[in-house]
Amino acid sequence: MWGSRGSIPAPGPETMRYGGNTSCVVVDLDDGSTLVLDAGTGIRSAGLAMPPPDRPLHILLTHLHLDHIQGLMFFAPLFRAESEVVVWGPSSPEASLRDRIGRYISAPLAPIEVRELPCHPSFREAEPTEWTLGGARIRAAPVTHRGPTLGYRIEADGTSLCYIPDHEPGLGARLADVDEEWISGYDLARGAGLLIHDAQYTDGEYPRHLGWGHSPLGDALTFGARTEVERLLLFHHDPLHSDDFLDSLAGQAAMRWEALGGAPHRVELATERREIALPSATPADVPAA
Amino acid sequence: MPNGSQRPLELILARNLLSNLATPALLTNDAGDIVFYNTAAGEFLGRPFEASGTVPVDEWVVDYGPLDDAGAPIPIDRHPLAQTLRSSHAGHENYTIRTLDGVHHQIAVSGVPVIGSDGYEGAMVFFWTPRGAEA
Q1: pTM for the whole thing?
Q2: Which of A184, A219, A230 to mutate to test the interface with B (most CBs of B within 10 A)?
């Protein structure tokens, strides 16, 4: 986890434990392939920690809101001519993925243009289908958020990871009651070994943010329970939520997850620099190096 | 990978919208089957969606119509609004339908196609008693 904050970076003493960088998760597969999920500000540190890649590096963008692409321009592999970087993201009827990202990596917001990046990245619109990257099967599907937004499911090495960092499946629907076929993201997340899911707001905060594209804690837990995931990692923390506040939220999440039938230790809040191993047999955590 | 049970996102969002409206409305899929209707529509028709579930379009026509001048159901392939929607255009028609209690009603129907990245996914259909025809 290189960034688990939502909306805007929130550095400072009150966010040091959970971290202030925006969305970025690096997935290392057993075959040596690396996938990067989103390019929020966390990708800067992730890139600095990566050895020179010996194979294509794939960045899977869920959408192009700034908190998911802001770090792209500071991702070290893009500045190495020998790197091969492929950027995947949602299609849009208004412009190509390259052109939409180019609106950020261009004047006046940036000192360089996409065409000047030394590694000459390629851009591919992720169709709502399945494909293979390295040793992983990838599926992308549109999910409820503001603007074209994808969730991803990655299956490899006998386990599965679902990543839906910005998601409001409960907008206009009661997730606890509605048939599963009517739940956004259901097929992506169903039975995943690990679900990384939006939980930006408390249930009390949510009514003031209805339709903003994010979930309250209750909906995130209900979505995880309805999709029967093995483990749930709550993500995209609100920038106003301090470490102490998130500690309190984590306690509530564990109790409510247990009430929904889950094991309390199988739900937690994402923490920057945390490393989670997902072996196919017995999932176990290892501390970050 | 799990597959197949989830509706297209565009239909999910359309259903969420319709379920929160007080205007009678229904949602069709690309085949024309009625995959949802809201509480207001259920009250008008005489049966809540929870009791019917998805209704194949042919069954819908038999149960509710629309009906021709002789009171016979109009087959879906002669249903002008359905044809308009399938051509990805919005449309409006006046129809006679029959509710579950057997009473015939004049209704105005407006349909809006739901077109996603994969093309025509279905339609949102709104209906009400035409101006001047209220009881």
Answers
A1: 0.89
A2: A184
